[in-house]
Every structure is written in structure tokens, then in C-alpha cells.
Write a structure and sequence with these properties.
This protein has 176 residues and is of the alpha/beta class. The chain has 3 helices and 9 strands; from the N terminus they run E-H-E-H-E-E-E-H-E-E-E-E. The structure holds inosinic acid and magnesium ion.
């Protein structure tokens, strides 16, 4: 697979912003233990980098979800492919996701997790596409707002490719 990928957010800009988010999170959770839940696969690179700079005690877990139906016509139905391993009741949980697009995935997931009675539940998203939102989602920590373009890299894929790019790039619409 080979597309023309143009840089939207450079590796340096991304890492600097991740360090800022980590500092903010560390200060907000001072005196607490933070339990981070990464949404696979897209959130993996982001959570790994973010967690390295967080200074409060951190534990990590993973979930995998998929939306039924095609990418363009989101049905709003989310399927849990892999649930988290550890119970979250009474814990301070931070969900870490690559991107909030229509909001279907996160609005469903956060409601589901809330029912499991964490002490607190917040969301950290690397990217946000506000123009595409259908379901309202509160993003407590957001890396960057981006325009409505298809992005890849730093965990984000096109047909499972390009996740390993160390920056966020855009694939030209005529190539998608
Ligand atoms: P939502 O439910 O529409 O908010 O979809 C969120 C999911 O769609 C993300 O976790 C990504 O996996 C995927 N997604 C949305 N926009 C993009 C993009 O521009 N590039 C790659 N994946 C995307
Ligand atoms: Mg995702």
C-alpha cells in the first residue's frame, strides 16, 4: 500500500503536545492512582507515549471495539471485541482514544463504562474532528482539533496500514 501522505502534525509538535497533556493530567490526578484504558488499536501509540510522561502512579488496560457497518455510514452500534481485564469499580479511569469523529464509539463506550461504577471517568483523545460530530462527547483532554480530513499515522490506519508513521498525515481524498 502506497499513498501520498502529507504531514498535518509533525512528530515534534505531537510529542510536545503529548507532554503538555501528561503534565496537565499529572496535576489533575495529584495524590491519586490513574487507571488508563487504551482503545485498540488506534490508541496504542498515543497511550504508550502519554503514559511515559505521567508522574502519578499509572496502571494500564486495553479494550477493542468495532462499529458495525461501513465507515462512512456509522450505525451507532458498537461491538466490544475485547473488554478490559481488570475491574474498574472505584478507580479513577482515563479512557485513551486516537480520534473522536462522529462520537458514536465514545458516547456508547463511556456510558457502558459509567455503569461499572468507576470513582471517576474521563476521556483523553489525541485528535478531535468537531465538524463530524453526531453524538455529543465530552473530551476532557484533547491533543488537537483537526479539519474533516482522513488522517493516518501514530496509531491511525487506512485499511490497517500507516499506523506506524511517527506523525499525523493526510491521505488525499482522491486516493482514499
Ligand atoms: P466515531 O465513532 O465516528 O467517533 O469513530 C471513531 C473511530 O473511527 C476512531 O477510533 C478511528 O478508529 C476511526 N476514525 C475516524 N476518523 C478517522 C481518520 O481520519 N483516520 C483513521 N481512522 C479514523
Ligand atoms: Mg479507534
Amino acid at each position: 500500500m502506497k499513498h501520498n501522505v502529507s504531514t498535518l502534525i509533525s512528530e515534534e509538535k505531537l510529542i510536545n503536545r503529548i507532554k503538555e497533556l501528561a503534565a496537565q493530567i499529572s496535576s489533575d490526578y495529584a495524590g491519586k492512582d490513574l487507571h488508563m484504558i487504551c482503545i485498540l488499536k488506534g490508541g496504542a501509540y498515543f497511550m504508550t507515549e502519554l503514559s511515559k510522561y505521567i508522574t502519578v502512579p499509572v496502571t494500564i488496560d486495553f479494550m477493542a471495539v468495532s462499529s458495525y457497518g461501513s465507515k462512512t455510514v456509522s450505525s451507532g452500534i458498537v461491538k466490544i471485541i475485547k473488554d478490559h481485564d481488570e475491574p474498574i469499580e472505584g478507580r479513577d479511569v482515563l479512557v485513551v482514544e486516537d480520534i473522536v469523529d462522529t462520537g458514536f464509539t465514545l458516547s456508547y463506550l463511556l456510558e457502558m463504562l459509567k455503569d461499572r461504577k468507576p470513582a471517576s471517568l474521563r476521556l483523553c483523545a489525541m485528535l478531535n474532528k468537531p465538524d463530524r460530530r453526531i453524538r455529543e462527547v465530552k473530551i476532557d483532554y484533547c491533543g488537537f482539533d483537526i479539519p474533516d480530513e482522513f488522517v493516518v499515522g501514530y496509531g491511525l490506519d487506512y485499511d490497517q496500514h500507516y499506523r506506524n508513521l511517527p506523525y499525523i498525515g493526510v491521505i488525499r481524498p482522491d486516493e482514499v
